[in-house]
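Issue 218. Parser rejects a valid record. Input:
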Amino acid sequence: MRTIIVEDFPAPLSIGADQAVQRRLIRVGAAFAAVLLVTWLVRGWLKLLSFDDAYMFYRYAMNIAHGLGISWNPDGVPTYGMTSQLWVFFILPLTTLPLTPGHALQLASWLAGCAALITMALAVRCHARSPWFQSRLGAFAAVALPLVGNPIFAYHLTTGMDTMLTVWANAAVVFAILQYVRRPSLGMAARVGMLGFVAVLARPDAGLCAVGAPCLAWLIATGERRWRDLLGLWVLPVVLLGGELLLCKWYFQVPFPLGFYAKSVHSYAGFLSSENAVHYAYLASLCAVPFVGVLGATFTRKQAPLLLALLLPVMATIVYLVTVRQVMGFIGRYYIPLLPYLVVPALLSLDAALVERQRLVRRVAFGVCLAALGYLCIRPVEIGLERQYTVRVVPAPIPVPTPPMRASTELPVYGGGWNPINPAIARMVASLPAGVTVAATEVGYLACLAPGASIIDLVGLNDTRIGIHGFSMDDLLTRSPDLIWLPHTAYTGLRANVLGDPRLFERYIVINDMFYYGVAIRRDSPLRGAIEKALRTSWNELYPSWRMADYVVSEHYSPATESGPQSVL
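Output the parser choked on:
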């Protein structure tokens, strides 16, 4: 029995368009896509990158470059804090360039995004039958224009996160699957399996698609079962993943990223956040609307097996993602990597329609408009699901003690944004002598700008002890950080533990509200003088109209004996 789906696209005929006009349109489309790509990069570079988690990857890359191995702190102790191992090594070469960390991260993200678009375009071109998509520029324009013209996709081009790298890895998996379906062989199956393993290294939640889609594609590739191909499609990636887990266990002492453990040992108890997985899924799906419309307008029954093989694992992944707590999942970054599984088959469906019909503009336009209308119409349902998600996933806040102070007003919060507070404390810590130990929850930019400081991640995402065993005030005081930037107000559980312990006020000078959340200076720290001097400099920059002494908590204050006001923020 012949191979189906890819070869079901008929041989090209003339599409009836003037070739000169066709070439001109293709060039204009590709040029416009390239201009948009450059515009988004320039736009991102004009402001300081504020995606704090991205700087964590840069910290790991810097430590590797300095010969410290995959470690978080200057002590060189291996730390499995990065969720994407591949992303650390992707940005590693860029740490040697004369770029700021933010610009290096944005450039890395943008380059990975461009590579993802090119890979999807190659997948379309290599399996296209129409002159429009057999052109390299035509295939690129068809892939890139709907995506880079969408501000949601464009946002992820310069976040500095692993999102675009995972899009690229998934695009490579889809490309390899199409090649395998067209010409099944053990060698091609091994290529698919290897790329699936790479996709998991780029982002662990890519695993369901990276392993599931190839196995489903095997079912529809040929009439006779090629059982040996499963060695490459399924056995190879599973063995590689098993070996990777063993290697991580040996090197890091844990097989999984620390975030897996931190979310299991109550580090996020009472964690308040407006992030909503359902809303993020809705936002990310806007990028899929034009391709859903194209697929709806050009779909034929012959294409159903391959579409099911590619899209069923995507649907299963989405179902999983909307049931879990998402942290820093801004603008749907966990869903964006799934796009190649829709984009490539949708454009190949359009390609098949182009070689069969001369006039598709109205039909495709109607399909896209219908998809957009459907997107708008499901909004009320999506809002209801958002509310259900919030009730089910977001915990109740934990009351937090509010230490008394002489000041009657709180310090300004500058809109509550990342800038200028995070950069200000990062500069302050960077000015301190090397070897200073700082504890905080917002550690990305802080750790990146102060490579000589030892940073205790109070959430445990970059601290093996806290990640595995959970936060303990006894443990924190034993480690005696010189400076504590008190936990973000969203971590009501952590703040209750820290501010509810009278030993904090006995051993530390606590300054309410400074840098949003408050700071604490260890009274017997050998660096106390340097820290106080640096804090006064930052205070004069941020709060010139307020007296620092009015915000210092008395060392005699004891939350265990005094019943002061409590807050859930």
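Fixed in the parser; the record now loads. Confidence is low (pLDDT under 50) at residues 1-17.
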